[in-house]
Amino acid sequence: MSVDLTTSPHEYCTSVMLLLSGIVNVLYLFCAALTEHKILFLSSSYQRLTDACRALLAIMFPLKYSFTYVPILPGKLLEVLSTPTPFIIGVNSFFRSETQELVGSMTLDVIIADLDGGTVTIPECVHISLLPDPLLQQTQTALSMVLDPELEMADHAFPPSSTQPSTLKIQDKEIRAVFLWLFGQLFNGYRWCLHIIRIHPEPVIRFHKAAFLGQRALTEDDFLMKVLDGMAFAGFISERGPPYRPTDLFDDLIANQVERIRQEECSPHKVMNHIKELAEQLFKNENPYPAVAMHKVQRPAESPGHNDPKNLAMFPLLDDVTVQLFIDHAAAKLQTAPPVVKAELKGMVPSGPPLGDIVDRHGHVLANSARRLEVVRNCITYIFDNKMLEAKKLMPAVLRALKGRAARVCLTQELNQHVLQNRAVLDDQQFDYIVRMMNCTLQDCSHMDEHGIAAILLPLVTAFCRKLGAGITQFAYSCVQEHMVWTNMQFWEAMFYSDVQNHIRALYLEADGGEQSIDSRGQQESGPAAGGQELLGALELASEQSRLWPTLSKEQQSERVQKEESTVFSQAIHYANRMSYLLLPLDTSKNRLLNRSGIGDVESVSNSYVTNRYTNSIAGSMAESYDTESGFEDAESSDVANSVVRFINRFVDKVCNESGVTNEHLKALHTMIPDIVQMHIETLDAVHRESKRLPPIQKVTNSLFYITLDKSHAERRPAPPRPAPPNPLSTNPCSSVSQCHAHGRYVCPSDSTMCDSH
């Protein structure tokens, strides 16, 4: 197909860029733009520079480029290329030597695309993260079929006669439809990971990145991680996050065509049919009134010597009256002409189907066997029924099962049920077993907590406790502090936004006479495991409230804004307490940290199975990071309490500024935080002192057996009788025990020959 590329109009820009650079190079440039690299286009044609820059932005839809964008950079402004921020810039090849000198002085971190030569030069120091498989291969195949439909049938003995590609105008829409289809797969289910933390006066939306990556099983994908952390995606959430707004083709793709995209994965022909439908819709959206002809400047007639200045006619003088009449006539026509852009109607944005089972890279559902889950449930039941012998037998199997995500979720669900039944106060051995399982569960959670396990455990570690003395209670959070998830600021932000969303939802449900979804403790499961219906309900509620906002009086609007702000403020106080629970070590007497390592002495947090190897590791890592940022170290900066206060202050500043908390409330929070930390330190002093006085916990032991082996058979005999150790776990009301001669178990003396197995 012969195309005059030098005179192609702007509406063909994506086709032009693909024909000039090639599919592979365009995909590299696409990934580089999304991951915020510097891109420089070179060409001797200003038209090609403009087309290439416009095309790169066009295929990024629905994302919008947020950095420097200059399609044609004048020669006198070439110093702009030395900016440290990402950019998309076009420079004429006439300035190639000057450009290379500037680029060479910038440590060669600029990707150069030569449109005239069709090459893309990537410096060795630049690493471009590419699309994950199989999306990369599927996108490349779809682009090949759009540009060259004959390629698929090139080896056929009798290829069909009509396999010509579409016209440039339609081909441009098909190429953009390929990338729109690609984004539909990349961002599938993103609305199920949105947190709405304010509805009035303007919606404030935050995206739960860890939950999205965890549910998509893409936590190790470098490309998507960079895209979600980029400025373009932040603008995408800000623009498309609100639940009440006009919708477009991408919203329909995410909400209503997810299942169709899944079914098309193994069928290139179905993919192409879908892409052609999307391209047709794009064409209709950009040409809403095809009957209206656009005025075009006619090409002048060519004649010998028409370019000679002597033969050029002078431009005539314009008559003021004639010009004014022409303007009035055109204005009158505009009064009756249809609008250039159709009016957009606002409505609730559909979220689409919820994300299904988590699958790994090979498509296998990640789950544990039903038997392992049953073992976890039985062990927890034995612990709360005080059957420690049976619980100890199952403990090794439980710890192995907790390596799987399904077993960890099962554990949190079972523990939550016992909290709801007011069975959170435990004895010493129950406390040790529960804490041991919590630590095992958190040990296999990453610092991102992409599966929401730490998020679900957070209210549980502040609920389970044991009595150490009169008025002294030790909670489970003092024994699970060594996990780095507690020092991840993004984890606390996601937890805070999730709980704020739950309380904002409950606020309006209560006002409307609905039932609250928050339990008696004022808490609700957070994170991706909390269930999609709650999240969908929050977005639906926010959409309805946004629709009613213009109909409210000024007093009603002010009242709702004040209630939402007070809700955020109260949650900030709540989380200041929660963070102090998890960040302050149990032994607060060791408030001096090792400046380099941030690791305290090895000690046991209690006389139990759980050993806190890094007592001061969390506060130490925080103090070290703050000291590094400040550039100096002193005795004051190495104090645990001050480090925790600074960490919480930093958290409060971020979430409150994003949530619209007033300056008065923010100042009040900064005044409260040191007092909250100090009060918790005083409480921990008594807890640590009493925990050191606990007697050693009596281990549960089984009776021993002799196994005599000879050549013919093996005979099982009971061990010789020995004094029975005290059994604090026994539920037998008898004051003394003896051994069952058949099974070696302790039974009531009234029936010393039989045990509970008979």
UniProtKB/TrEMBL annotation:
One of its GO terms (biological process) is regulation of Rab protein signal transduction. Residues 1-247 form the UDENN domain. SMART domains: dDENN, DENN. The chain crosses the membrane at residues 12-34. GO terms for molecular function: guanyl-nucleotide exchange factor activity. Signal peptide: none annotated. InterPro entries: cDENN_dom, dDENN_dom, DENN_C, DENN_Domain_GEFs, SBF1/SBF2, Tripartite_DENN. GO terms for cellular component: cytoplasmic vesicle. Residues 714-735 are annotated as: Disordered. Pfam families: DENN, SBF2. Keywords: Guanine-nucleotide releasing factor, Membrane, Transmembrane, Transmembrane helix. It comes from the Eukaryota. This is UDENN domain-containing protein.
